[in-house]
TrEMBL record:
It comes from Dioscorea zingiberensis. Transmembrane segments: none annotated. Keywords: Repeat. This is Pentatricopeptide repeat-containing protein. One of its GO terms (molecular function) is mRNA binding.
Amino acid sequence: MATARHLLLLRRCSITKIFLPLLSPHPLPIHKILTPSSSSVAPRFFCSDGLSDLRGRILLLTEKPSSFDADAEAIRSQLSDLASRLLSLPDGADPSPLLSSSPLFPPFAFLHLLSLLRSRPRLALAAFDWRCKHSDSLGPPIHPEEYAKAITIAGRERNTDLAADLLADARKRRTVSTSVYNALMAAYMYNGLTKKSISVFEDLKLDPDCKPSIVTYNILLSVFGRSMMVAPMEAVLRTVQESELTPNISTYNTVIAGYIAAWMWDKMESTYRSMEEGLVKPDNHTHLLMLRGYAHSGNLEKMEQVYELVREHVIEKDVQLIRAMICAYCKSNDPERVKKIEALSKFIPDEDYRPWLNVLLIRVYAQEGLVEAMERFIFEAFQRNTIITTIGVMNSIISSYFQCNAVDQLAGFVRRAEYAGWRLCRSLYHCKMVMYGKEKRWEEMHGVLDEMELFRFDRTKKTYLIMYKAYSEIGRRWEAETVIGMMWKHGFVTTAEVVSSLQLT
């Protein structure tokens, strides 16, 4: 009677064909089908596009008896226990013994198991391999979504050959669907294999049993957007708009991301405005994209406006965007940029160090003449073995020390920069000579010449002019004339120029 009642219920829900394999050769009570209302058994798939109706029917099937929820919870518990035992296996261990001894699970349960194993991609793929080998003798046939999930995992593991083999295997079993093609397209996209991803799209169009979905086109948009192929991306968007498919929020967000990658700020903003005026309204992800775009484009006013919309999310979850905003302030002329940079920097963990950002902050504080703060970031760069190779940054540091007349601090910085392998320049040594000359520290000024020779910086006409000016300004005529003689000796001045200068002195 129980079996007949279950069959009648299956017929009413129009899914007898889908679940009939569960009744033979290893029948399972139909009430043990995993309840899809639980978030843990309905994992999100980037490539899923046809399960909502199927899961809805499962929900109709399981919403009556109160014991169903308890049974579903028991199955979830069994899956969690199995996943824990699998995850405890050492790397490279065979999961087959544990999987073979586990009870049979209903449809979509293995999808949940793969999600639980996502922290160990190779283990998840080994488990799916076991599933493929035993699908004919144990449990229900493999569902296309299982292939899609396995292909996605293989793509994240950067094993695109395996991902392609899984699609081929799905074709052999006649279990291929649009979501399986989508998964392989996404796997190729994730690994930067643009041509292969497009090739999969062409194969999908030729498959008589499948047709591209909006998810397919969203992936294709992302493929072109990531490669900054704007014209093909816009062509795909027009195709979607002119078809029977309905663009969704992911469609427009992907297009905006493509414009940001190509630094096409006007088109980025026009797409955003069209969303505000259209049926598909911007969501939180849209605002995060726009915040990134405005930061990269240096549009501080609009960046700050969008930041207020997503402030809490950015502070709690997106340190990368905080760094992008700090970078925008570093490159700007905002009179309050230091104050704003320091306010944002509080949300970056101490361990989240980025060399490029440290160098930018060194330059900002140098430009603002804030020597103490500049030295703090310089010290951190030395501690973390960050090497500065940009002449512009070094010149900013030199100028900051010079403006504050901090010759001893400059000398200490030069010594550490020499030892750390930073980009040295003749300006470093010239600045030291000028500052020593102003303080009449002649011995140290002449010592700079030895440092220049040690680091293979030839003396130039400017080098001698610095010394000549230092001596002549305080009336030390004999030393000044000696410098002129050295300039003549090295060919920097002619005899006539020497005579003229001597007459002047």
